[in-house]
Structure to design on (331 residues):
C-alpha cells in the first residue's frame, strides 16, 4: 500500500511543472506504470483523487498507461513481451536477458484545458 | 488543448537522496546492505547472528526500520553495536530521506558495514532505493517455496537471496531446492545463501561474503 505516497510524488511533480496561469487548467495527468513496478492502478487513482480533493487539481483525471514487461535475449536477440514473470528467453531458453521495459514509473504528460 | 511534456520519474526525489546517501557511505568506505523480506522471515535474527559472528572482524552499524516499536533496535543495542531505529508509524517501506537522517547519527568514520533492516514487506520496499550497495532479500522456508514467483520485483531487484530457517524444512511441505530454483528463475544473477539462525548453519559463508565486500580503512 505505497500507492498513496506514489500519488503524492506525482502531484508534487505536476505542481512543479505548472506556472501561475496553468494552476487551474489541468485536465489530465498521464503516467506510465510498468508491470514490474508493483503499483495497483486502482489504488493509485483512488489516492490521487483523495489527495487532490479541494485543491487546484480537484477533478483532474489520472490516466495510466500500462507498460508491458519486455525482455531482449542477449544470445539470440529475440524481443519478447512477458505475461508471466519467467525471466528467460522463450525462443532459446537463455537466462541471459536484459529488461527492455516494465520498470517504468513516471509522469509523462500534463494535458491542459485552453 | 495544450500538452506539457514532463517525462520525470515519480521517485526522482527519493533517487536523488539515495544517490547522496550512497556518496556519503562511499566517502567513508562503508559497504551497505538493505535487508528486505516479509515480516517474520528472520531479518533481525540474521542481523544478530551476523553481529555475533563478525563483531571481531568487521565494524558494524545498524539502521532498523519498523512500523511500530523499537524492539529490534533494542535487540541490536544489547549487543553493543551502534544502532538507530526508524519508526515509520504505518508507512510500509523505508525511504531514502529517512535513512539519510539516520545514518548521520551513526559514527561513520569507524563503520565498515552498514546494515539497513527494512520494514517487513515483500512489495513496497522494492521500488525505493536507499543508497545501499546491495539489496539482500531473505525468504524463509516457512513462507512456502513459491514466494519468489509471487513477489518477482523484489527478487529481480535484489543481488543476494538468503533462504532462512533451513532447519525447519524437514517439517514443511516446501522444498529448499524449489525455492532456490524459483528465485533464480526470476533473477539468475542472485547469489544464494542458505541459513538457520537457530542452528547457525550457513552463517559463516554469509559472513565471509560480507567480509569479502568490506574495504579496509
Amino acid at each position: 500500500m505505497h500507492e498513496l505516497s506514489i500519488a503524492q510524488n506525482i502531484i508534487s511533480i505536476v505542481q512543479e511543472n505548472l506556472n501561475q496561469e496553468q494552476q487551474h487548467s489541468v485536465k489530465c495527468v498521464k503516467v506510465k506504470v510498468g508491470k514490474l513496478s508493483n503499483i495497483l492502478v486502482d489504488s493509485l487513482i483512488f489516492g490521487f483523487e483523495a489527495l487532490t480533493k479541494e485543491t487546484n487539481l480537484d477533478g483532474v483525471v489520472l490516466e495510466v498507461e500500462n507498460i508491458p514487461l519486455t525482455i531482449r535475449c542477449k544470445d539470440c536477440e529475440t524481443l519478447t513481451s512477458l505475461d508471466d514473470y519467467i525471466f528467460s528467453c522463450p525462443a532459446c531458453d537463455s537466462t541471459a536477458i536484459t529488461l527492455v521495459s516494465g520498470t517504468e514509473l513516471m509522469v509523462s504528460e500534463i494535458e491542459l484545458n485552453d | 488543448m495544450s500538452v506539457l511534456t514532463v517525462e520525470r520519474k515519480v521517485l526522482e526525489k527519493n533517487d536523488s537522496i539515495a544517490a547522496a546517501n550512497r556518496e556519503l557511505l562511499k566517502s567513508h568506505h562503508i559497504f551497505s546492505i538493505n535487508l528486505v523480506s516479509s515480516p517474520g522471515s528472520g531479518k533481525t535474527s540474521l542481523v544478530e547472528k551476523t553481529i555475533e559472528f563478525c563483531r571481531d572482524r568487521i565494524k558494524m552499524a545498524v539502521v532498523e526500520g519498523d512500523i511500530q516499536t523499537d524492539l529490534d533496535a533494542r535487540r541490536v543495542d544489547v549487543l553493543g553495536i551502534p544502532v538507530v531505529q526508524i519508526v515509520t508509524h504505518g508507512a510500509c517501506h523505508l525511504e531514502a530521506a529517512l535513512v539519510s537522517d539516520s545514518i548521520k547519527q551513526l559514527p561513520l568514520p569507524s563503520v565498515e558495514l552498514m546494515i539497513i533492516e527494512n520494514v517487513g514487506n515483500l512489495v513496497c520496499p522494492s521500488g525505493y532505493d536507499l543508497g545501499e550497495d546491495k539489496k539482500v532479500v531473505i525468504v524463509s522456508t516457512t513462507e512456502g517455496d513459491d514466494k519468489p514467483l509471487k513477489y518477482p520485483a523484489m527478487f529481480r531487484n535484489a543481488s543476494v537471496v538468503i533462504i532462512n530457517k533451513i532447519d525447519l524444512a524437514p517439517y514443511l511441505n516446501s522444498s529448499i531446492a524449489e525455492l532456490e530454483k524459483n528465485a533464480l528463475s526470476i533473477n539468475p544473477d542472485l547469489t544464494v545463501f542458505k541459513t538457520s539462525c537457530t542452528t547457525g548453519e550457513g552463517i559463516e559463508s554469509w559472513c565471509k561474503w560480507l567480509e569479502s565486500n568490506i574495504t579496509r580503512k
